[in-house]
Design goal:
Oligomer: homodimer
Order of helices and strands of chain A: EHEHE
Strand content of chain A: 35-45%
CATH topology of chain A: Mth169, Chain: A
Distance between the termini of chain A: 12 Å
Radius of gyration of chain A: 16 Å
Largest interface: A-B, 35 and 35 residues
Low-confidence stretches of chain A: none
CATH superfamily of chain A: Phosphoribosylformylglycinamidine synthase subunit PurS
Number of helices of chain A: 2
CATH class of chain A: Alpha Beta
């Protein structure tokens, strides 16, 4: 068994209004960061997974994302794996 | 002026207890993902920043992270910039 560290970026799907992102964008503008736009806020998850190979590790992490970590109806996720 | 897309990963500092991560780890174990450990949950922010060059864009985004986006007392942040 090898250990892999997974970095998972989770974001709302493109067509869903990102209220939190819009609020942070407005707050940045009031703090005179007027050059900032298109702010999107999501989740960032790191975890260690034990698996026989990278392919199996990826399939476990995708399964965990679909079942618990992300909300597959509203969110997209992107997984990066590195062997540790 | 060029536009840069910043991807910001924000995580609790190492010595701070990640209660949300621990809760997700326990939930994954009950869903029979027993091969998963060391779960850490943070925030993922994407934004577009207009700046003269990459160095200036990075300094703007770091400033925005310190002043609003991250909590510099409890969190570390990592910024990646790509020109768009």
């Amino acid at each position: 068994m090898k250990n892999f560290r997974a970095a998972i970026q989770i974001q709302l799907r493109n067509n869903i209004l990102d209220v939190q992102g819009k609020t942070v964008e407005n707050a940045l503008h009031s703090l005179s960061f007027s050059n900032v736009s298109d702010v999107h806020i999501g989740k960032y998850v790191e975890l260690t997974v034990a698996a026989a190979d990278k392919q199996q590790a990826l399939s476990h992490v995708e399964d965990a994302c679909r079942k618990l970590i992300a909300n597959p109806i509203m969110e997209d996720f992107h997984i990066e794996l590195t062997e540790v």
